[in-house]
Design a protein that fits this description.
By secondary structure, the protein is mainly alpha-helical. The protein has a domain of about 90 residues. It is built from 30 helices and 2 strands. Strands 1-2 form a two-stranded antiparallel ribbon. Helix 27 runs antiparallel to helix 29. The longest helix is centred in the last third of the chain and has 28 residues.
């Protein structure tokens, strides 16, 4: 069956490439068309079937580039010498992300080699002595690291992986726990890199319509309406507390708990085997040798947000907390935190006699090298996002849905639209940037009357939240999203296995958010009633479809 599907997809791709080559003027159009969906759909479908994320992403990029350039050869070459290069050389943000990702890998490499991660594991094992407590502690850690999704994924995944392996939590479940407390938590936090970005999107439309209400107040009002983010976190803890799983996750957890194999036999984990070997070969050292560098990551990153924020203020700007955070540079702060923490870990290893200078530097290099696979996928994910922007994937989806909008349908239709765009492009922030300027004026005009009153209505707030929450859902589910890649990397999971096992859970939360949340708020139901209904439905789904994972060796059939 898979071969037939692959054959159809490759034939479709080949046909479209020939079509692009012979009809370049027709295909490369200012107006979006169905062709806009082909690159992301090809990449996503092939990745899910073949489990070759790198190749699938690249084929999606080539198909898009062929349409843009109007030829097969020009598309292939421009994919290499233009789009890939542009993704790095043309984006300071992308380069920064790669830098702090590899630097964080270097930090983990040193802590693996000097035995401090084993020390943390030894202490943690006193408090979280079984599978249930391991999962619960991971979820709680995800709530604590709320200020940035990248920090959340890298810190929680790398810190908890050695311990959760010991208590037989599958890498698929670990990456789900980490991923579901990264973007959803950061998106809901009153102060985070996400919240500042989200509220800043309202500034232009508010100014256009003369709306005087604070954008920050509007964002705070939208938090209870971010149904997907809320339910994703609640559903996560319900699976842990109720000890219920279903779908591919049930198989993964059954395998792990009955056999001790935290990875599937054919898995390709997003980490270097040398890093695992380094951890296994190291002697146990005191937990503080890891705690000090990790504390520095947090402290320096938070301090870096304030420093870059103060430097970013214009003369005369009020030095308020919100202004400082809104002008901060989180990528710079993360680079400072990851590199200085790495230097500190090396210094601790040398001065405490855990490693000599040569071994410490080798450990840092090995750790950084372990992130290369993830960095390759990150670059490819960014490139296909650029391709989608040029062929107007998002605009096409918006065009398809705009004629169905009424005030009552605005929240659910907006949620669906945001989810489709984010899933197809792999970027929640790009989706928010596209949809907020479109949906905010639309809902203001549909509501009519005093604009300052309109923005305080549940329909407006729910629609704005639907953009944010739908974007998180699409990004959370997409195999080409950078946050999904980072979660797989930090947890040492097979990337496609992570997507396959997480997707059913994400879809359930999205369906509940859509019907119990956005449809009900669209017809005037109180937001807190909607949240309670969503929680009730989540419990019901797990009771009906969930199964208790066996903890002893035995057969399993779904």
């Amino acid at each position: 069956m898979k071969r037939k599907i692959l054959f159809i997809l490759f034939m479709l791709a080949a046909g479209t490439l020939l079509f692009a080559n012979s009809n370049s003027e027709t295909v490369v159009s200012i107006e979006p068309s169905w062709i806009s969906l082909l690159p992301p759909l090809t990449a996503i479908t092939l990745a899910m079937i073949t489990k070759q994320a790198h190749l699938s992403l690249f084929l999606g990029i080539v198909i898009g580039a062929c349409f843009i350039t109007g030829g097969v050869w020009s598309g292939i070459t421009s994919s290499l010498d233009h789009y890939l290069v542009k993704s790095l050389a043309g984006s300071e943000s992308h380069t920064a992300i790669l830098m702090f990702t590899m630097a964080f890998g270097g930090l983990i490499g040193v802590m693996s080699a000097n035995g401090s991660l084993k020390g943390v594991l030894k202490v943690a094992s006193k408090y979280a002595t079984n599978n249930f407590r391991g999962q619960l502690l991971t979820g709680i850690m995800g709530l604590v690291i709320f200020f940035d999704d990248y920090s959340n994924s890298l810190l929680v995944g790398n810190m908890m992986r050695p311990f959760t392996d010991k208590v037989r939590v599958s890498r698929e479940k670990l990456s789900y726990l980490v991923d579901s407390t990264a973007a959803p938590v950061a998106s809901l936090a009153a102060v985070s890199t996400w919240s500042i970005f989200q509220m800043s999107l309202l500034e232009a439309p508010f100014a256009t319509y003369g709306i005087t209400q604070s954008t920050y107040v509007t964002f705070l009002q939208s938090i209870p309406y971010s149904f997907y983010c809320i339910l994703a976190i609640i559903f996560l803890f319900l699976t842990v507390i109720m000890r219920k799983e279903f779908g591919p996750m049930l198989k993964a957890e059954t395998r792990s708990q009955t056999t001790g194999e935290v990875l599937a036999k054919n898995a390709k984990p997003m980490m270097d085997k040398a890093l695992v070997a380094s951890l296994d070969a190291s002697k146990t050292s005191h937990w503080s040798n890891a705690a000090i560098p990790i504390a520095l990551v947090l402290g320096i990153t938070i301090g870096g947000l304030f420093i870059t924020g103060l430097n970013g203020l214009a003369p005369g700007d009020e030095k308020s907390f919100i202004n400082i955070i809104s002008t901060s540079n989180p990528n710079t702060a993360l680079i400072w935190g990851s590199f200085f923490a790495g230097f500190t870990a090396i210094a601790i290893s040398i001065f405490r006699g855990l490693l000599n200078l040569t071994d410490a530097m080798d450990a840092w290099i090995n750790g950084a090298r372990s992130m290369v696979m993830a960095c390759v996928i990150l670059v490819l994910a960014w490139v296909i996002g650029d391709i989608c922007a040029e062929i107007k994937t998002a605009e096409y989806i918006v065009e398809l849905t705009k004629d169905f909008l009424t005030p009552a349908l605005l929240p659910p239709i907006t949620f669906i639209t945001a989810a489709l765009i984010s899933f197809s492009t792999g970027s929640s922030w790009a989706t928010m940037s596209i949809l907020v300027p479109v949906t905010v004026p639309m809902v203001i005009q549909l509501m009519g009357g005093d604009y300052n009153v309109a923005v305080q209505s549940p329909i407006f707030i729910s629609t704005f939240a639907a953009v944010l929450s739908g974007s998180v859902f699409g990004d959370h589910s997409s195999p080409i999203a950078d946050t999904t890649v980072l979660s797989s990397t930090a947890c040492g999971a097979d990337h496609i296995d992570h997507v396959r096992t997480q997707l059913p859970y994400a879809l359930v939360c999205a369906a509940i958010a859509l019907f119990a949340g956005y449809f009900l708020t669209g017809i005037g139901v109180n937001v807190f009633v909607c949240i309670l209904a969503g929680i009730g439905l989540s419990v019901a789904v797990l009771k009906i479809f969930g199964k208790t994972v066996p903890t002893t060796v035995g057969s399993f059939s779904e």
